[in-house]
Amino acid sequence: MSDPIDFYFDFSSPYGYLASARIDALAARHGRRVRWNPVLLGVAFKAMGSAPIAEVPMKGEYSRRDFARSARFHGLAYREPSHFPIATVAAARAFYWMRDQDDAAAKRLAHALFEAYFVRDVNIGHAGEVVAIGAAVGIDPVPLKAALEDQSLKDRLKREIEASIGRGVFGSPFVIADGEPFWGVDRFDQLDRWLETGGF
Amino acid sequence: MSDPIDFYFDFSSPYGYLASARIDALAARHGRRVRWNPVLLGVAFKAMGSAPIAEVPMKGEYSRRDFARSARFHGLAYREPSHFPIATVAAARAFYWMRDQDDAAAKRLAHALFEAYFVRDVNIGHAGEVVAIGAAVGIDPVPLKAALEDQSLKDRLKREIEASIGRGVFGSPFVIADGEPFWGVDRFDQLDRWLETGGF
Fold first, then answer.
1. CA-based nearest distance B146→chain A, Å
2. A184 vs B186: CB contact, 8 Å cut-off?
3. Contact across the interface for B50 and A56, Cβ inside 8 Å
4. Which of A76, A96, A121, B96 is the most exposed place for a label (fewest CB within 10 A)?
5. Are B180 and B194 in contact (CB under 8 A)?
6. Could you read off the pLDDT of B19-39 as tens digits, one per residue?
Protein backbone atom coordinates (compact mmCIF):
# COMPACT_ATOMS: atom_id res chain seq x y z
CA MET A 1 0.00 0.00 0.00
CA SER A 2 1.42 3.38 -0.93
CA ASP A 3 2.15 6.11 1.58
CA PRO A 4 -0.51 8.73 2.10
CA ILE A 5 -0.25 12.02 0.26
CA ASP A 6 0.63 14.86 2.64
CA PHE A 7 -1.61 17.92 2.48
CA TYR A 8 -0.27 20.98 4.34
CA PHE A 9 -2.37 24.07 4.86
CA ASP A 10 -2.96 27.04 7.13
CA PHE A 11 -6.54 27.44 8.36
CA SER A 12 -6.38 31.14 7.48
CA SER A 13 -5.41 30.47 3.84
CA PRO A 14 -8.17 30.97 1.23
CA TYR A 15 -6.34 28.75 -1.25
CA GLY A 16 -5.96 26.16 1.52
CA TYR A 17 -9.74 26.26 1.92
CA LEU A 18 -10.30 25.73 -1.81
CA ALA A 19 -7.83 22.85 -1.79
CA SER A 20 -9.48 21.25 1.25
CA ALA A 21 -12.67 20.83 -0.74
CA ARG A 22 -10.93 18.89 -3.51
CA ILE A 23 -7.86 17.03 -2.23
CA ASP A 24 -9.49 13.86 -0.88
CA ALA A 25 -11.54 13.25 -4.02
CA LEU A 26 -8.53 13.92 -6.25
CA ALA A 27 -6.41 11.41 -4.32
CA ALA A 28 -9.22 8.84 -4.16
CA ARG A 29 -9.43 8.78 -7.98
CA HIS A 30 -5.92 7.30 -7.83
CA GLY A 31 -6.65 5.01 -4.91
CA ARG A 32 -4.68 7.21 -2.51
CA ARG A 33 -5.36 8.48 0.99
CA VAL A 34 -4.51 11.96 2.26
CA ARG A 35 -2.94 12.96 5.57
CA TRP A 36 -3.95 16.48 6.52
CA ASN A 37 -1.37 18.64 8.30
CA PRO A 38 -2.33 22.15 9.41
CA VAL A 39 0.63 24.48 9.90
CA LEU A 40 1.18 28.12 10.82
CA LEU A 41 2.82 29.87 7.90
CA GLY A 42 4.30 32.66 10.04
CA VAL A 43 7.37 30.52 10.71
CA ALA A 44 8.08 29.90 7.02
CA PHE A 45 7.35 33.56 6.20
CA LYS A 46 10.05 34.55 8.71
CA ALA A 47 12.54 32.21 7.02
CA MET A 48 11.67 33.69 3.61
CA GLY A 49 11.57 37.31 4.78
CA SER A 50 8.09 37.58 3.32
CA ALA A 51 4.62 38.57 4.48
CA PRO A 52 1.09 37.20 4.06
CA ILE A 53 0.12 37.80 0.43
CA ALA A 54 -2.81 40.10 1.29
CA GLU A 55 -0.43 42.49 3.06
CA VAL A 56 1.97 42.91 0.12
CA PRO A 57 1.54 46.12 -1.93
CA MET A 58 0.01 45.48 -5.39
CA LYS A 59 -0.15 41.72 -4.85
CA GLY A 60 -2.50 42.19 -1.89
CA GLU A 61 -5.19 43.97 -3.91
CA TYR A 62 -4.96 41.41 -6.69
CA SER A 63 -5.04 38.48 -4.29
CA ARG A 64 -8.28 39.57 -2.63
CA ARG A 65 -9.93 39.64 -6.04
CA ASP A 66 -8.34 36.32 -6.95
CA PHE A 67 -9.51 34.59 -3.75
CA ALA A 68 -13.14 35.34 -4.57
CA ARG A 69 -12.81 34.64 -8.29
CA SER A 70 -10.98 31.36 -7.70
CA ALA A 71 -13.74 30.27 -5.30
CA ARG A 72 -16.37 31.01 -8.00
CA PHE A 73 -14.23 29.20 -10.57
CA HIS A 74 -14.17 26.10 -8.35
CA GLY A 75 -17.86 26.44 -7.50
CA LEU A 76 -17.27 27.03 -3.78
CA ALA A 77 -18.94 29.47 -1.42
CA TYR A 78 -16.62 32.25 -0.24
CA ARG A 79 -16.97 35.42 1.77
CA GLU A 80 -13.94 37.56 2.59
CA PRO A 81 -13.40 37.31 6.35
CA SER A 82 -13.60 40.56 8.33
CA HIS A 83 -10.42 39.58 10.18
CA PHE A 84 -7.74 38.38 7.80
CA PRO A 85 -5.28 36.82 8.10
CA ILE A 86 -5.54 35.47 11.64
CA ALA A 87 -3.43 33.25 13.91
CA THR A 88 -4.91 29.77 13.68
CA VAL A 89 -3.04 28.19 16.59
CA ALA A 90 -6.13 26.86 18.38
CA ALA A 91 -7.64 25.46 15.17
CA ALA A 92 -4.42 23.64 14.26
CA ARG A 93 -3.95 22.25 17.78
CA ALA A 94 -7.54 21.03 17.91
CA PHE A 95 -7.06 19.30 14.56
CA TYR A 96 -4.00 17.29 15.67
CA TRP A 97 -5.66 16.38 18.96
CA MET A 98 -8.63 14.99 17.05
CA ARG A 99 -6.52 13.33 14.33
CA ASP A 100 -4.73 11.24 16.93
CA GLN A 101 -8.08 9.75 17.94
CA ASP A 102 -10.10 9.69 14.72
CA ASP A 103 -8.87 10.86 11.33
CA ALA A 104 -12.33 11.16 9.79
CA ALA A 105 -13.56 13.28 12.71
CA ALA A 106 -10.51 15.53 12.38
CA LYS A 107 -11.30 16.11 8.69
CA ARG A 108 -14.92 16.90 9.53
CA LEU A 109 -13.62 19.44 12.05
CA ALA A 110 -11.27 20.94 9.44
CA HIS A 111 -14.06 21.31 6.88
CA ALA A 112 -16.27 22.93 9.51
CA LEU A 113 -13.50 25.35 10.56
CA PHE A 114 -12.81 26.40 6.97
CA GLU A 115 -16.51 26.85 6.30
CA ALA A 116 -16.97 28.89 9.48
CA TYR A 117 -14.11 31.21 8.59
CA PHE A 118 -14.51 31.60 4.83
CA VAL A 119 -18.27 31.35 4.43
CA ARG A 120 -19.87 32.46 7.72
CA ASP A 121 -17.15 34.95 8.76
CA VAL A 122 -16.62 33.36 12.18
CA ASN A 123 -13.26 34.34 13.69
CA ILE A 124 -11.69 30.93 14.24
CA GLY A 125 -8.69 32.64 15.78
CA HIS A 126 -10.63 32.41 19.06
CA ALA A 127 -10.28 29.09 20.88
CA GLY A 128 -13.89 29.38 22.06
CA GLU A 129 -15.13 29.38 18.46
CA VAL A 130 -12.99 26.37 17.64
CA VAL A 131 -14.51 24.44 20.53
CA ALA A 132 -18.04 25.48 19.52
CA ILE A 133 -17.47 24.47 15.90
CA GLY A 134 -16.10 21.15 17.14
CA ALA A 135 -19.21 20.61 19.24
CA ALA A 136 -21.39 21.25 16.21
CA VAL A 137 -19.70 18.33 14.38
CA GLY A 138 -19.97 16.01 17.37
CA ILE A 139 -16.71 16.59 19.24
CA ASP A 140 -17.08 16.68 23.03
CA PRO A 141 -16.14 20.24 24.07
CA VAL A 142 -14.90 19.35 27.55
CA PRO A 143 -11.81 17.25 26.68
CA LEU A 144 -11.08 19.48 23.65
CA LYS A 145 -11.07 22.60 25.82
CA ALA A 146 -8.76 20.92 28.31
CA ALA A 147 -6.44 19.68 25.55
CA LEU A 148 -6.10 23.17 24.07
CA GLU A 149 -4.56 24.34 27.35
CA ASP A 150 -2.22 21.39 27.64
CA GLN A 151 1.50 21.98 27.06
CA SER A 152 1.96 18.66 25.29
CA LEU A 153 -0.47 19.69 22.53
CA LYS A 154 1.30 23.04 22.15
CA ASP A 155 4.61 21.17 21.78
CA ARG A 156 3.02 18.79 19.32
CA LEU A 157 2.00 21.60 16.95
CA LYS A 158 5.47 23.13 17.21
CA ARG A 159 7.04 19.82 16.19
CA GLU A 160 4.63 19.41 13.27
CA ILE A 161 5.51 22.88 11.99
CA GLU A 162 9.25 22.28 12.38
CA ALA A 163 8.88 19.02 10.48
CA SER A 164 6.98 20.78 7.69
CA ILE A 165 9.72 23.42 7.39
CA GLY A 166 12.24 20.58 7.22
CA ARG A 167 10.31 19.17 4.25
CA GLY A 168 10.36 22.55 2.48
CA VAL A 169 6.74 23.54 3.09
CA PHE A 170 6.46 27.33 2.72
CA GLY A 171 2.94 27.98 1.49
CA SER A 172 -0.68 26.85 1.64
CA PRO A 173 -1.86 24.58 0.22
CA PHE A 174 1.27 22.50 -0.17
CA VAL A 175 1.09 18.84 -1.15
CA ILE A 176 3.90 16.27 -1.07
CA ALA A 177 3.16 13.09 -3.00
CA ASP A 178 5.85 10.40 -3.15
CA GLY A 179 8.48 13.04 -2.40
CA GLU A 180 7.28 15.46 -5.08
CA PRO A 181 6.17 18.93 -3.82
CA PHE A 182 3.20 20.84 -5.26
CA TRP A 183 2.49 24.38 -4.07
CA GLY A 184 -0.94 25.85 -4.66
CA VAL A 185 -4.39 24.61 -5.58
CA ASP A 186 -3.39 25.72 -9.08
CA ARG A 187 -0.91 22.83 -9.15
CA PHE A 188 -3.66 20.24 -8.64
CA ASP A 189 -3.71 19.61 -12.39
CA GLN A 190 -0.03 18.66 -12.22
CA LEU A 191 -0.59 16.64 -9.04
CA ASP A 192 -3.41 14.79 -10.76
CA ARG A 193 -1.23 13.87 -13.73
CA TRP A 194 1.66 12.96 -11.40
CA LEU A 195 -0.51 10.48 -9.50
CA GLU A 196 -1.88 9.14 -12.78
CA THR A 197 1.49 8.59 -14.43
CA GLY A 198 3.88 8.17 -11.50
CA GLY A 199 5.81 11.25 -12.59
CA PHE A 200 6.36 13.19 -15.81
CA MET B 1 -14.37 45.08 -32.26
CA SER B 2 -13.20 44.35 -28.75
CA ASP B 3 -10.00 45.73 -27.28
CA PRO B 4 -6.95 43.50 -27.41
CA ILE B 5 -6.02 41.44 -24.39
CA ASP B 6 -2.90 42.80 -22.70
CA PHE B 7 -0.15 40.29 -22.02
CA TYR B 8 2.63 41.52 -19.73
CA PHE B 9 5.80 39.54 -19.17
CA ASP B 10 9.48 39.77 -18.32
CA PHE B 11 11.82 38.11 -20.80
CA SER B 12 13.67 36.49 -17.88
CA SER B 13 10.51 34.87 -16.46
CA PRO B 14 10.14 31.11 -17.03
CA TYR B 15 6.38 31.32 -16.48
CA GLY B 16 6.33 34.22 -18.94
CA TYR B 17 7.99 31.94 -21.48
CA LEU B 18 5.41 29.19 -20.91
CA ALA B 19 2.61 31.73 -21.26
CA SER B 20 4.10 33.17 -24.45
CA ALA B 21 3.67 29.80 -26.14
CA ARG B 22 -0.05 29.68 -25.38
CA ILE B 23 -1.57 33.14 -25.07
CA ASP B 24 -2.22 33.92 -28.76
CA ALA B 25 -3.94 30.59 -29.42
CA LEU B 26 -6.02 30.91 -26.26
CA ALA B 27 -7.20 34.38 -27.24
CA ALA B 28 -7.82 33.37 -30.85
CA ARG B 29 -10.27 30.66 -29.73
CA HIS B 30 -12.42 33.55 -28.49
CA GLY B 31 -11.79 35.74 -31.53
CA ARG B 32 -9.48 38.04 -29.59
CA ARG B 33 -6.11 39.60 -30.36
CA VAL B 34 -3.25 39.96 -27.88
CA ARG B 35 -1.00 42.97 -27.30
CA TRP B 36 2.35 41.87 -25.91
CA ASN B 37 4.03 44.16 -23.38
CA PRO B 38 7.46 43.24 -22.00
CA VAL B 39 8.27 44.85 -18.65
CA LEU B 40 11.12 44.75 -16.15
CA LEU B 41 9.81 43.33 -12.90
CA GLY B 42 12.53 44.93 -10.78
CA VAL B 43 10.43 48.09 -10.47
CA ALA B 44 7.36 46.23 -9.15
CA PHE B 45 9.54 44.09 -6.87
CA LYS B 46 10.87 47.29 -5.31
CA ALA B 47 7.31 48.52 -4.69
CA MET B 48 6.41 45.18 -3.09
CA GLY B 49 9.62 44.83 -1.10
CA SER B 50 10.10 41.43 -2.68
CA ALA B 51 12.77 39.60 -4.66
CA PRO B 52 12.84 37.37 -7.73
CA ILE B 53 11.23 34.07 -6.72
CA ALA B 54 14.38 32.01 -7.36
CA GLU B 55 16.30 34.09 -4.79
CA VAL B 56 13.80 33.59 -1.95
CA PRO B 57 14.79 30.93 0.65
CA MET B 58 12.65 27.74 0.43
CA LYS B 59 10.55 29.14 -2.43
CA GLY B 60 13.63 29.42 -4.65
CA GLU B 61 14.47 25.73 -4.51
CA TYR B 62 10.85 24.75 -5.13
CA SER B 63 10.48 27.20 -8.00
CA ARG B 64 13.45 25.83 -9.94
CA ARG B 65 11.86 22.40 -9.79
CA ASP B 66 8.47 23.84 -10.70
CA PHE B 67 9.81 25.75 -13.74
CA ALA B 68 11.09 22.53 -15.29
CA ARG B 69 8.09 20.43 -14.27
CA SER B 70 5.61 23.05 -15.53
CA ALA B 71 7.41 23.14 -18.88
CA ARG B 72 7.11 19.34 -19.16
CA PHE B 73 3.45 19.58 -18.12
CA HIS B 74 2.79 22.04 -20.94
CA GLY B 75 4.90 20.04 -23.40
CA LEU B 76 7.48 22.79 -23.89
CA ALA B 77 11.27 22.53 -24.13
CA TYR B 78 13.06 24.05 -21.15
CA ARG B 79 16.62 24.23 -19.89
CA GLU B 80 17.51 26.17 -16.77
CA PRO B 81 19.59 29.16 -17.88
CA SER B 82 23.13 29.42 -16.47
CA HIS B 83 22.53 33.08 -15.70
CA PHE B 84 19.22 33.64 -13.96
CA PRO B 85 17.50 35.95 -13.53
CA ILE B 86 18.98 38.59 -15.82
CA ALA B 87 18.22 42.19 -16.74
CA THR B 88 16.26 42.10 -19.97
CA VAL B 89 16.42 45.80 -20.82
CA ALA B 90 17.80 45.35 -24.35
CA ALA B 91 15.31 42.58 -25.18
CA ALA B 92 12.34 44.68 -24.00
CA ARG B 93 13.54 47.79 -25.84
CA ALA B 94 14.08 45.82 -29.05
CA PHE B 95 10.57 44.40 -28.78
CA TYR B 96 8.85 47.81 -28.53
CA TRP B 97 10.97 49.20 -31.35
CA MET B 98 9.87 46.32 -33.56
CA ARG B 99 6.24 46.39 -32.38
CA ASP B 100 5.88 50.00 -33.55
CA GLN B 101 6.73 48.87 -37.07
CA ASP B 102 5.33 45.35 -37.34
CA ASP B 103 3.46 43.53 -34.57
CA ALA B 104 3.91 40.07 -36.09
CA ALA B 105 7.67 40.58 -36.46
CA ALA B 106 7.86 41.74 -32.83
CA LYS B 107 6.14 38.53 -31.69
CA ARG B 108 8.51 36.44 -33.79
CA LEU B 109 11.39 38.25 -32.09
CA ALA B 110 9.87 37.60 -28.64
CA HIS B 111 9.43 33.88 -29.33
CA ALA B 112 13.03 33.71 -30.57
CA LEU B 113 14.33 35.56 -27.49
CA PHE B 114 12.46 33.26 -25.10
CA GLU B 115 13.65 30.20 -26.98
CA ALA B 116 17.25 31.42 -26.98
CA TYR B 117 17.20 32.05 -23.23
CA PHE B 118 15.15 29.12 -21.95
CA VAL B 119 16.08 26.40 -24.43
CA ARG B 120 19.53 27.23 -25.84
CA ASP B 121 20.93 28.99 -22.74
CA VAL B 122 21.89 32.15 -24.63
CA ASN B 123 22.32 35.13 -22.30
CA ILE B 124 19.83 37.58 -23.79
CA GLY B 125 20.91 40.14 -21.20
CA HIS B 126 23.57 41.13 -23.74
CA ALA B 127 22.41 43.59 -26.39
CA GLY B 128 24.65 41.88 -28.94
CA GLU B 129 22.75 38.60 -28.51
CA VAL B 130 19.42 40.40 -28.89
CA VAL B 131 20.56 41.92 -32.18
CA ALA B 132 21.87 38.55 -33.42
CA ILE B 133 18.63 36.78 -32.50
CA GLY B 134 16.73 39.52 -34.30
CA ALA B 135 18.86 39.04 -37.39
CA ALA B 136 18.07 35.32 -37.33
CA VAL B 137 14.34 36.08 -37.59
CA GLY B 138 14.83 38.63 -40.36
CA ILE B 139 15.26 41.91 -38.49
CA ASP B 140 17.90 44.20 -39.96
CA PRO B 141 20.62 44.47 -37.27
CA VAL B 142 21.86 47.93 -38.29
CA PRO B 143 18.79 50.03 -37.40
CA LEU B 144 18.04 47.81 -34.37
CA LYS B 145 21.54 48.34 -32.99
CA ALA B 146 21.20 52.09 -33.47
CA ALA B 147 17.75 52.14 -31.87
CA LEU B 148 19.00 50.33 -28.76
CA GLU B 149 21.35 53.23 -28.09
CA ASP B 150 18.74 55.89 -28.67
CA GLN B 151 17.43 57.81 -25.66
CA SER B 152 13.89 57.90 -27.01
CA LEU B 153 13.66 54.09 -26.94
CA LYS B 154 15.01 54.03 -23.38
CA ASP B 155 12.34 56.54 -22.38
CA ARG B 156 9.71 54.54 -24.19
CA LEU B 157 10.43 51.39 -22.13
CA LYS B 158 10.36 53.44 -18.93
CA ARG B 159 6.94 54.81 -19.84
CA GLU B 160 5.62 51.32 -20.66
CA ILE B 161 6.81 50.00 -17.30
CA GLU B 162 5.32 52.96 -15.41
CA ALA B 163 2.03 52.40 -17.20
CA SER B 164 2.09 48.70 -16.28
CA ILE B 165 2.69 49.55 -12.61
CA GLY B 166 -0.24 51.95 -12.85
CA ARG B 167 -2.42 49.07 -14.05
CA GLY B 168 -1.34 46.88 -11.12
CA VAL B 169 1.03 44.59 -13.01
CA PHE B 170 3.42 43.03 -10.49
CA GLY B 171 4.32 39.62 -11.91
CA SER B 172 4.96 37.64 -15.08
CA PRO B 173 2.94 36.57 -16.90
CA PHE B 174 0.17 39.03 -16.15
CA VAL B 175 -2.86 39.34 -18.40
CA ILE B 176 -5.52 42.04 -18.35
CA ALA B 177 -8.65 41.19 -20.31
CA ASP B 178 -11.51 43.70 -20.37
CA GLY B 179 -10.20 45.17 -17.11
CA GLU B 180 -9.88 41.84 -15.32
CA PRO B 181 -6.34 40.91 -14.13
CA PHE B 182 -4.93 37.37 -14.27
CA TRP B 183 -1.54 36.62 -12.75
CA GLY B 184 0.29 33.48 -13.78
CA VAL B 185 0.10 30.93 -16.55
CA ASP B 186 -1.80 28.90 -13.94
CA ARG B 187 -4.67 31.37 -14.28
CA PHE B 188 -5.07 30.65 -17.99
CA ASP B 189 -7.91 28.26 -17.15
CA GLN B 190 -9.76 31.13 -15.46
CA LEU B 191 -8.85 33.53 -18.29
CA ASP B 192 -10.19 31.01 -20.79
CA ARG B 193 -13.52 30.75 -18.98
CA TRP B 194 -13.66 34.53 -18.52
CA LEU B 195 -13.30 35.11 -22.26
CA GLU B 196 -15.84 32.36 -22.94
CA THR B 197 -18.49 33.66 -20.55
CA GLY B 198 -17.73 37.37 -20.27
CA GLY B 199 -17.05 37.01 -16.56
CA PHE B 200 -18.05 34.60 -13.80
1. 36
2. yes
3. yes
4. A121
5. yes
6. 999 999 999 999 999 999 999
